[in-house]
Amino acid sequence: MTEQAKYHGLPSNEEVDSMVELFKAFGDKTRYRIISMLAAHKMTVNEIASQLDVSQPAISHQLTVLRHAGLVVGERKGQFVVYQLADQHIITILQQAREHRLS
Question: Phi/psi zone of residue 14: left (φ > 0), alpha (ψ -120 to 50 degrees), beta?
């Protein structure tokens, strides 16, 4: 990055890539719904699929995208994996986005 880019507050290429990946993860209707549901409580793939009336493989794929973006984590409980948001920051992002769009 050049001195001029730093002076103007431009983010590094690495930061841009990271932020774009984060916002892409939020930018899908199904993933947004999953994030909203997991903000309320932990859930399994089957519970999410049932509530959204979407196939289990489709939900598993979306959870993989969310995991790679660092938004959700899964914990094995017997034969099931229980998913939850990775941390409180995701709830904050969700709330701020809602407030921004609704104001």
Answer: alpha
